[in-house]
Design goal:
Layout: H1 5-22, H2 30-40, H3 42-47, H4 71-74, H5 82-97, E1 114-119, E2 122-127, H6 130-144, H7 149-167, H8 172-195, H9 214-226, E3 230-233, H10 240-249, E4 255-260, H11 267-279, E5 282-286, E6 291-295, H12 314-358
Parallel strand pairs: 3-4
Antiparallel strand pairs: 1-2, 4-6, 5-6
Length: 359
């Protein structure tokens, strides 16, 4: 600290007057003069604009042998630095208000109650009440709580026990309802899985359809039946590889046979429409043994990409077929269970009527 000569003379004169008034005299140095000013008139030191703040603790003036603090120093209120003084004043204000702490201005609130939000490159601050902050923290703590491995195993055992009780229940209605609920959950799960295999179809390209006479159709039908080359459509259905094989056969032949096996009734017609859209060929004939004859057309040009982009791959087509099979069997099982439940309800109603008639 740097003090001017005028300041020191003023402080020395003030201290000497106060010492004479209290009836004691002593030699003053820099430290004793400063402590005397703090002891005698603390408010003047804290309130004067020219005085520099310094932290003071009574332990600095403890006598080395007696380990006691002078009474006049121990009763002195502490002098704070500017930052600590403002913090103490703020805490006193908030503590004195009590229940009115919620109505204090934002400068008296803590940093925890301020939330920063960024929306559309705009920064916003929002203030919360202490109760709201506590609820937010509690919700966050609840989310982060993790169950132990033992707790998870106990929960699984509980659910398995409940399922076993329903599965082997003496009441047939409980058994049927348990199986029906399980089958319906599986059906919804399979439908969601099959939605992932839906490929968006490209818009159809405009092209001039070639008109064939009856004689040309008869000739192409006979030649297609006689030739041995064919393209199989198996359980995967129509995918990119089937269209690719058709274009490879059309490189050397005008017609190609597509054999659908296994094929449900009416499914060959769907395959014919789908392959005609993807390959841009002409359907000549669909035989009862699920054989389709395609003609490549008079103005056929082999495309650069022979496998259309809006078709599934070989692996995904097989996966889709498995989900479809599972969905088909599940739906049949649900129908069977619903029929059994109806029969059980009819049986119970008949039994009640017979009992009422007997009474």
């Amino acid at each position: 600290m740097i003090f001017t000569a005028g300041f020191w003379t003023f402080m020395f004169s003030a201290a000497s007057i106060r010492g004479a008034r209290h009836g004691f005299s002593c030699t003053f140095n820099r430290h004793s003069l400063f402590w005397l000013c703090l002891v005698e008139d603390v408010p003047t030191v804290a309130s004067s604009p020219t005085t520099c703040f310094q932290s003071f603790t009574p332990y600095e003036s403890i006598h080395p042998r007696t380990y006691r603090t002078p009474r006049h120093i121990s009763r002195v209120p502490p002098v704070y630095s500017p930052s600590s003084f403002l913090l103490q004043q703020r805490s006193d204000i908030i503590g004195s208000h009590g229940n009115q702490g919620n109505k204090l201005p934002s400068r008296y609130t803590s940093n925890e109650s301020v939330e920063l939000k960024t929306q559309n490159d705009v920064v916003r601050f929002s203030l919360y009440k202490p109760g709201d902050i506590g609820s937010i923290k509690n919700s966050q703590n609840k989310k982060t709580v993790k169950k132990s491995r033992k707790a998870k195993l106990n929960e699984l055992r509980f659910y398995r026990l409940k399922a076993k009780q329903k599965m082997y229940s003496p009441n047939p209605e409980v058994r049927i309802l348990y199986k029906l609920g399980k089958a319906k959950r599986k059906e919804t799960w399979l439908i969601e899985k099959l939605r992932k295999f839906d490929v968006p179809k490209l818009p159809p390209e405009t092209f001039d359809p070639e008109i064939l006479t009856e004689e040309e159709r008869h000739y192409l039908k006979r030649t297609g039946e006689k030739k041995k080359h064919y393209v199989p459509v198996g359980r995967r259905g129509v995918f990119g590889g089937v269209v690719l094989n058709m274009h490879l056969h059309w490189k050397n032949h005008e017609t190609v046979k597509v054999i659908c096996k296994p094929c449900k009734p009416g499914q060959a017609q769907q395959y014919a429409e789908e392959l005609a859209r993807l390959s841009k060929g002409i359907v000549i004939d669909i035989k009862p043994n699920n054989i389709i004859i395609f003609y490549r057309g008079k103005n056929y040009v082999q495309p650069k990409v022979m496998s259309p982009p809006d078709t599934l791959s070989k692996v995904k087509a097989l996966e889709k077929y498995r989900y479809e099979q599972s969905l088909e069997h599940t739906s049949q099982f649900i129908e069977k269970l619903e029929k059994e439940l109806e029969e059980y309800h009819e049986h119970v109603a008949r039994f009640k009527k017979g009992k009422e008639g007997a009474t």
